[in-house]
Here is the input.
Amino acid sequence: MEAQELKELIQQSVRETIHEVLREERLALCLALIPRVSEKEMQEIRGQFGSPSDYDKSEFVNMTDWVRNGTDLQ
Here is the structure.
């Protein structure tokens, strides 16, 4: 393996590792920002707003790709 090929392989490995670490940290931040509620508070919330299954699916935005990849929502 030539020095240039080795350098490119190392750079790609570092990029992938950094990308994965940033993804994990972004997910950890999202989880840390979700407020904790007691069971009593959760019952009050459900009483006031209902359950997610009560809402029309068209009212929701799927953010899975954004959370996984940090890309723009479409």
